[in-house]
Design brief:
- By secondary structure, the protein is an alpha/beta fold.
- It folds into 2 domains: 373 residues, Peroxisomal Thiolase, Chain A, domain 1, CATH 3.40.47; 220 residues, Up-down Bundle (Heme Oxygenase, Chain A).
- 44% of the residues lie in helices and 13% in strands.
- It contains 21 helices and 15 strands.
- Strands 1, 2, 5, 6, 7, 8, 9, 12, 13, 14 and 15 form an 11-stranded mixed beta sheet that branches. A two-stranded antiparallel sheet has the order 3-4.
- Helix 9 links the parallel strand 12 and strand 13.
- The chain is globular.
Length: 633
Amino acid sequence: MPVPFQRVYLQSAGSFLPGEPVDNERMDDYIAPLNRLSQRIKRRILAENGIRERYYAIDAEGRTVFTNAQLAAGAIRDCLTRGGADLTQVSMLASGSSGGDALMPGFANMIQGELAAPPMETLSVHGICAAGVGAIQAAAQGIELGAHRSALAVAAEMPSRLFKRSRFAARGYETDFDSHFLRWMLSDGAGALLLSDGAALAGAKGLKLRLKWVHQRAFSGDYPVCMQLGLTEDRERGHLDFGSWAEAEAAGALSLRQDIRLLPHLFDIGIHEYAQLVKDGWVDPARVDHFLCHYSSEKFIPVVEDLMGKAGLAIPRERWYSNLAWRGNTGAASILVMLSEFLQTRTLKAGEQIFCYVPESGRFMAAYMLLEVEAADAPPAAIAAPQAKAAPMPAEDEFIAPPHDPGSAPDGLRDLLTELASIWHDYRSQVWRTPLVRKIRERRFAVPDYLNWMAQWVPQVREGSLWMREGAASLTGDYQTLAALIDVHAGEEQNDFQILFDDYRKAGGPVSDIAQLRRNPGGEALNAYLHGLAATPNPIGLLGAIYVIEGTGQRIVPALLPLLKASLKLPPDVFRFLEYHGHNDEHHLSRWLMAVEMVMAIDPGGDAPRKIVETARHTAALYLMQFQHITQG
């Protein structure tokens, strides 16, 4: 749930970007390409990210011109000057960064020392892109609780020191793509916000900007590490596990990396969180006048836009604001640098809302803020946490939840898809924390584990077409029109178990008679439930089961497959079943949507949606039980 604020105002914002802007041609003067491959990677990445200029706090010789603490101090000075304030009025300093100049002490304390600031409360938020929002939230909470009248939130990043060509000498200037990638993406800079309880703004003419709420949510328990510094490429060892810093550097443990193959999942969870904020009444897309979205590359604009559109929650493109192209990607500082320039260059009106979104790829996190412009003489408003659907929402605020809808859906299905998305989101999160998936993610998954999994899964898949056909045979009246569609689906899947069994045998599975394989307790429970439901008259709820099962094949299996291939030294043809489902379940879900439309047309206003949602919930719980029992087989 977001943290609401009643008495927190943004008094001023400032930034500090070191030196002169560096265009794409001059980048080589600071972070020279490492080898021939590096030049090709550079051209490809710069063509996609849309960054034309950025700033570096090192010179062309690789010498540090400004420390990270000095960048932060510069942003604070600019912020205070713009707000007509000084450090004696500030009693709290919260910083956000992926790293200061020293491993210890805390970054906020180093900034306080750089400023020679008077005694005050300090807090250092260590993270990546969302760390700046963490600092803002901490400062705002201090004000909301009455502990502080004014507080500073600052974020600063200085990755250029990691990108110098000399850093890669220990590896012979050879490195992997994941660490090549970020050299052409990130740059240096700092931003700062001065927050206050509004007393300094009382009686002033013009406008004031209130922070309404901040929301942060991490999904680190669901996904493996995506962006990191301090671990080897395989994430097996940390930099402190080596005998010396030189050994750690030679092993690549001091290279900043990002696994770009995981990034699509980051946007999935980010848009889902956004959709939940809308559903619960925290933000209304129709009321958002300015959308400040932190994306690391312009390549991701259509990705975010498309997902928001599919959710029925699009914010028109003309309301978006970003200075990525001419300020660069400054990580945790980006949203503060963006806010500072936005406020200096835009004329705002009372009642306008500014919505900020910051995805973090470290181990997946999403952060949001909502600010609203008020007349300077407006009295403080008491803010209660909104209630879900407390007020009627415009039609565009109803949404089709990702990730399963194959595009836009008819208006009549939106409420149903929203309920299913909520079930899916919880189910997926729990699946990713099962012992099986954790073992795969941590690269501890071996061939015997794979064979054990397949041995339990084969008999479960074998039953799929059987309960579908049984369900089709139980349809009566108008619902009989669905039977042909279900039979087509069952026909496509009736031999899937044989593909899976062949994969099992080719991987070294010892059981040659398929009839000897047994489901685990979770699989037995799921099978009994689906067959029992299929035998009832008009078992429309089975569509909820198909949603979860096919969704698992479309979304979870493709995410696991690269990890499996990396862990298991097996030929490609032992993964045919997993490959097949990753590519084809999206088409199956399209057919599923068609079946749901038919059901809704047959019985508009009936209880079919309730049955589908109920079955989806039960199926998700039983499928999860099946996952949990695999490692016990």
